[in-house]
UniProtKB/TrEMBL annotation:
Keywords: Kinase, Membrane, Phosphoprotein, Transferase, Transmembrane, Transmembrane helix, Two-component regulatory system. Its main location: membrane. Residues 195-246 form the HAMP domain. PROSITE patterns: HAMP (PS50885), HIS_KIN (PS50109). It comes from Azohydromonas caseinilytica. It holds the Pfam family HATPase_c. This is histidine kinase.
């Protein structure tokens, strides 16, 4: 599964909750605005209803029948403009209703009259209907009783809802734009807050990198209360590991001292052992001595690997170690007149490996190369391509090499590919283990010289 950073998770969560919160606020504001505008229209309609009711008169009609009249109309110009958006209506029990000029030639829809029975005397009712030109109307009406009339009269004032919808839509766009800008500002503020809140973790990461790179031995500095316990636990683990390293060194030294002396005594006694049995005992003692030495080197290297990872010391110069080893190999294989070559960069690097461990690692590889080479061995040191923080050490020989299907077996402890050659079969295996203990890896390939290429990559100090 792909890993999502904590910063990205927090920012996405902040963006989600900001969007949901502001969307809810926006909807609430639009609803409140519409309610407020509608309340304003209702207050305005009540005033106009009062004016209309105050201007109603009962006039005598033909044949003694009373009829409704209006002394004065409301002064709002929208009532006098055809399809002006504001309408008033006075409807009695009989006869055509009185209506504003804004109705033009249209008559109120019969559905309006069907709603008047819902009116409660003395209260203003709210209704919806259809006006001229199929305009959606919002109406406020009252039922009043006038002297001289047998039936109550309904007085209504209406407004075109399209206008209200337009105002609401315009307000919603304005609020949406404002809340969008606010959302961006809040998200930017959330980003700053997340950055500030995660800054201690960034400092902790830098401290761990300095610790791994050897620039510090502990995590220093003050951290927030949520992070400080983690820092304290990490420092406690480092102290515990340091004690383990010290104990491992002491135990490996004691073991070396305890084994080497008895082996030396037995070896001295076996020198005078005659016959084939003496030869066999001396050969096995030499093999045992070699295996003990290799295992002790590995134990010391394992104990030193933690110190190397914590940056103990300035690192080991590769050139100096190779010079020592090449001089040793020249003496050991002087009878074969091997040609030993080396190729170093202009500035020879240092590696994060203890000196003794690097001697053992490269010594095994050089000894193996010299043992199998016909007449030429070449050592090359260079930065690892694409990773300048690592160093690659290549050891070539022009011997028979190792078949591809047998290279993995050659790195297994105690595996000897040719029983006719002396040795314990531990050289390449120990070199591989030492490389892995210090963050490297041993690879076996075919050399351009025709034999084996042993390539090991190690971290640069």
């Amino acid at each position: 599964m792909s890993r999502v950073s904590l910063r990205r998770r927090l920012l996405w969560a902040a963006a989600l909750w900001i969007a949901l919160g502001l969307a809810a606020v926006g909807v609430l504001l639009v609803l409140l605005f519409r309610h407020h505008v509608e309340q304003e229209l209702a207050e305005r309609a009540r005033g106009q209803l009062d004016a209309l009711i105050a201007g109603l008169v009962v006039e005598p009609g033909a044949a003694g029948a009373a009829r409704l009249g209006l002394r004065r109309e409301p002064p709002d110009p929208a009532f006098h403009q055809p399809l002006g958006g504001m309408y008033w209506l006075v409807q009695g029990a009989a006869g055509p209703p009185l209506r504003s000029r804004s109705w033009w030639d249209a008559l109120p829809a019969p559905a309006l009259a069907a709603q008047w029975p819902k009116l409660v005397p003395g209260e203003t009712g709210r209704f919806t209907g259809t006006g001229p030109g199929a305009q959606p109307l919002l109406l406020w009406a009252r039922r009043v009783e006038l002297a001289g009339l047998d039936a109550p009269v309904v007085v209504a004032v209406g407004a075109d809802v399209t206008r209200l919808q337009g105002l609401t839509r315009s307000y919603a766009l304005t609020v949406g734009a404002a809340l969008g800008v606010l959302a961006l500002a809040l998200w930017a503020a959330a980003g700053l807050q997340v950055r500030s809140g995660l800054a201690p973790l960034g400092r902790l990461q830098v401290a761990l990198q300095r610790l791994r790179g050897g620039e510090a031995s502990r995590i220093e500095g003050r951290y927030p209360a949520e992070v400080q316990p983690l820092v304290a636990d990490l420092n406690a683990v480092l102290d515990h590991n340091e004690r383990l390293v010290r104990q491992a060194r002491e135990q490996s030294g004691n073991l070396a001292h305890g084994l080497k002396t008895p082996l030396a005594v037995i070896g001295n006694a076996a020198v005078h052992w005659p016959g084939e049995e003496g030869e066999l005992v001396r050969a096995q003692l030499a093999l045992l001595q070699r295996q003990v030495d290799l295992h002790l080197v590995r134990a010391r290297a394992a104990a030193q690997s933690l110190d190397a990872s914590r940056g103990a010391g300035p690192g080991t110069p590769v050139a100096a170690v190779l010079d020592d080893l090449l001089r040793v190999m020249e003496r050991l294989y002087a009878a074969r007149a091997l040609r030993l070559e080396r190729e170093l960069p202009p500035q020879p690097p240092r590696v994060a490996v203890p000196t003794e461990t690097l001697h053992e690692l490269l010594g095994n590889l050089l000894d193996n190369a010299c043992q199998w080479a016909r007449w030429r061995v070449r050592v090359r040191v260079a930065p690892q391509p694409g990773a300048p923080e690592r160093v690659v050490i290549e050891i070539h020989d022009d011997g028979p090499g190792i078949a591809p299907e047998q290279r993995e077996r050659a790195l297994q402890r105690g595996q000897r590919l040719d029983e006719r050659q002396p040795g314990s079969g531990l050289g390449l295996a120990i070199a591989d283990e030492l490389a892995q203990l210090h963050g490297g890896r041993l690879e076996l390939e075919k050399s351009p010289l025709g034999g084996l290429l042993a390539r090991v990559g190690l971290p640069r100090r």
